[in-house]
Write a structure and sequence with these properties.
- The protein is α/β, with parallel strands linked by helices.
- It contains 7 helices and 7 strands.
- The strands form 2 sheets. The chain has a 5-stranded parallel β-sheet with strand order 3-2-1-4-5, with helices on both faces. The protein has a two-stranded antiparallel sheet with strand order 6-7.
- It starts with 5 loop residues before the first strand and ends in a 10-residue tail after the last strand.
- The model has no long low-confidence stretch (mean pLDDT 84).
Length: 155
Amino acid sequence: MNKIKDIAIIASPDNKTDLIEWSYFNKEALAKHQILALGSTANILEGTLNKKVNVLESGKPGEYSALRNLIEENKVDAVIIFDDAGEIMHNRSLYSIMETAIRNNIIIATNRTTADFVITSKLIDNEYKISTDEKKITDKNTFAVSKTYPLAKAS
């Protein structure tokens, strides 16, 4: 990951207030990075951050194919989702974003607390090498680890 991160932000209509409060609270940290979002979310972010936001194509309503493609092409470093937990797990489009992010080993935050920790991490403003030797989804229920890790010896 480059020093300047490409951060995609998704917010449901019911969570726009949270998005406004969160983006204003993290305005200074977010200003250093490239922000990607869909239509109304992009408009809100441009207003609270006072910076240009890259608008993603929405395609069909509720579908995030352009974002999934960018994740697959390693053009997104983090995804932050503002939606209800139940909706994230049951909405096929949001769930597919999570699967794509996990498969490509990128940052994903599905609640405000995690988003705060990600944005304020000392790693967010530095270059970072993504490990390719970690867990990968092999199907919907199985994870495979491509590298073994030595256990520490007890003293």
